[in-house]
Amino acid sequence: MRIGILGTGNMAEALGGPWSRAGHEILVGGRAPERARALAERIGARPGTLHEAAHFGDAALLALPYDAVSGVLAEVGELRGRVLIDCTNAIGPGLVLTTGEGPGAARRIAAATGARVVKAFNHVTPAVWSRTPPVFADGPLTVPLCGDDEEALALVATLAKDMGCAPLVVGPLARADLLEAATAFLIGLWHSGHDPRLMLPPPAALGG
After folding, report:
1. What share of residues in the chain are helix, strand, coil (percent, to 5)?
2. Which is deepest, 2, 63, 165, 204, by most CB within 10 Å?
3. pLDDT at site 2
């Protein structure tokens, strides 16, 4: 596949690197040309502008701080119908969602662009995605996916598999609100030194 990446930070590198190594053609776009060139060189991609990345190939990845998203989307032009992968987290001080009581980040991005948005890759840090592959004692890391478009979900599932992960479609884009909130909750536990897995018994223990 051909994937555009908007952003030149840690998530752009952590996701773009494995995709490039899996044989996908990657174009990295950023506001700072020298940063885009440096990242492209590190991961075996092509550098470009944010506009070029947004419209490149089969899909685009939003690998940006959430508070930068609206400004970038205003720059890149029409995205209606594009497959847009949202790995952002709208989390502010106190590890609370900055989207408040309204729609979450992914649904706001979809409403603003008309793109076929898939929420994915937001629930763990770049250090996890940089593992080659992200496989642990219990097996490959599961990647929850939320989206309304079957073709877009299948494309992102392929990208997850190509990283050595196990994609799991967990529902429509509306459920991305829950995934975003759960991620904020998980980050709070991790930051405080707690292991979220200790809260979850094996399914067989739940009964019924």
Report:
1. 45, 20, 35
2. 63
3. 98
